[in-house]
Design a protein that fits this description.
about 300 residues, alpha+beta, OB fold (Dihydrolipoamide Acetyltransferase, E2P), 3 domains, five-stranded mixed barrel, four-stranded mixed sheet, 8 helices, 11 strands, about 40% helix
């Protein structure tokens, strides 16, 4: 009798353990409310990790993506490009015949989006904070003592930020991996976010390659050289990334659902030295990559 009870308890425990990483069961036409973490993007679908298992969420032209505005009583409508791996979301939708959830509305908080974007962008903000302090120290030698205090305070903040990033990074251990199926780089003049004709042609070719792939997403990252102050470089790198996204949407007919939020990298990850004009020209760029979930790619 005791052996049977132990067997039953073990079987229940094993079933619960397996359910933690199995697909969530959904009935066709069932109204569904879910909370979870985005662990993958594949074209029009998201992979959502919930407490009950993994769920595939389908995005449509009617899907509303929103976050709280002001005191949270109102909602601000957002583009589906913000739905990046690592973002915590809540989904209201309906089950379909393929055991997926067709999303009607998706909600998330601004803090969760910032955390996900921080992981995507790395330690760009931290690097720029250090650069700003160095500039302040050099320009105000009379206030060296005061600047040292500020630097020490910022170093403590940087350490705290790094700890937060490391803690948040643990959430990404389960993220799906992607294969790069194509890429292009657009280069820009100093202080400009205008795309050249030759780079437009390269982007059109890349978009044509993308639409022939199943479940593709497009990643866009903007960069700047070291000219100007960090705040300006950060803003300029975002302007360049957004210019490329606008071109892909308007001139290449890439659906917005297939583009993930742009990364404004500032002067991080330079492709060349900033000590020469040629090197700086190589750093004023936007990198565009076609990504396909490794599971779909058969890798």
């Amino acid at each position: 009798m005791h052996a049977i009870q132990r067997y039953a308890i073990t079987l229940v425990a094993l079933t619960c353990w397996m359910a933690a990483d199995t697909a969530y069961s959904i009935t066709n036409g069932e109204s569904v409310k879910l909370n979870g973490l985005i662990t993958g993007r594949s074209g029009d679908t998201l992979t959502l990790k919930t407490s009950s298992g993994k769920v595939t969420v389908v995005l449509t032209d009617d899907t509303k993506v929103q976050k709280p505005k002001g005191l949270g009583l109102r909602k601000k409508q957002m583009s589906t490009t913000v739905l990046i791996p690592g973002l915590k979301i809540s989904v209201d939708g309906v089950g379909d015949a393929q055991n997926r959830v067709v999303a009607a509305t998706i909600n998330f908080s601004g803090d969760d989006l910032q955390t996900a974007e921080t992981i995507q962008a790395g330690l760009t903000q931290t690097q720029e904070a250090v650069e700003t302090n160095q500039q302040d120290t050099g320009a105000n030698k009379v206030q060296i003592a005061a600047n040292r205090e500020r630097i020490n305070a910022n170093q403590e903040q940087i350490a705290a930020n790094q700890q937060e990033i490391q803690e948040a990074a643990r959430r990404f251990d389960q993220l799906s991996e992607y294969d790069v199926k194509g890429q292009a780089t657009a280069y820009f003049r100093t202080g400009s976010s205008t795309i050249s004709t030759s780079d437009k042609n390269s982007l059109k070719k890349l978009a044509h390659e993308a639409v022939n792939l199943t479940g593709y997403i497009i990643q866009v990252k903007g960069f700047a050289d070291s000219s100007g102050n960090p705040a300006m470089n950060q803003r300029l790198s975002m302007d360049r990334a957004q210019a490329v996204i606008a071109f892909l949407l308007q001139d290449c007919n890439v659906p917005v659902r297939h583009i993930i939020a742009p990364g404004a990298m500032g002067t991080a990850d330079p492709a060349a030295t900033n000590e020469t004009s040629q090197g700086r020209a190589g750093n004023r760029r936007v990198e565009v990559k076609i990504l396909v979930n490794r599971g779909l790619a058969g890798g």
